[in-house]
Amino acid sequence: DIPIADENTLLEILYTQLSFLGLNDHQEVIGKQLIGSIDNDGYIRRKLEAIVNDLAFTSNIITDEDEVESILYLIQDFDPAGIAA
Questions:
Q1: CA distance 4 to 66
Q2: Which of 3, 22, 45, 84 has the most C-beta neighbours closer than 10 Å?
Q3: Cβ-count burial 33-71 (b if 16+ within 10 Å, e if not)
Q4: How far is the CA of 37 from the CAs of 1, 26, 45, in angstroms?
Q5: How far apart are CA 83 and CA 43, in angstroms?
C-alpha cells in the first residue's frame, strides 16, 4: 500500500485560520492576498504599497496601507508563530 499524505499545506492552514476571523468579503480578499504574498520562509518581504497596488489591479479592491496592515496584524497572530513577519 502506498500511503497518501493527508496533510494540509501551510497556505491551506492559513486560509482556514483566515476563514475563522469572520471578515467581510473585502477584508477576506485582502487577507488572501497577504497570505499569497508569504514566501517559503514564512515572511512577507513585499512592501504594503505593492500589495495595495496588486489588489487594485488584480482584484479591483480599493484599499490603503492602513487597512492592509490591520489585516496583516491579524494574520501575524496565526499559527505557526512568527508567520508573515
A1: 43
A2: 84
A3: bbbebbeeeeebeeebeebbeebeeeeebebeeebbeeb
A4: 37, 17, 8
A5: 6
Dist CA 35 CA 57 (whole Å): 17
Length of the chain: 85
Cell of 79: 499559527
Prior bond to 80 cis, omega within 30?
yes
Q: In angstroms, rounded to a whole number, what is the distance separating the alpha carbons of residues 42 and 83?
A: 5
Model confidence over 34-58: pLDDT tens digits?
A: 999 999 899 999 999 999 999 999 9
Helix (H, G, I), strand (E, B) or coil at 47: coil
**Spatial CB neighbours of 17, under 8 Å, sequence gap ≥ 6:** 75, 78, 79
**Residue type at 82 in one-letter notation:** G
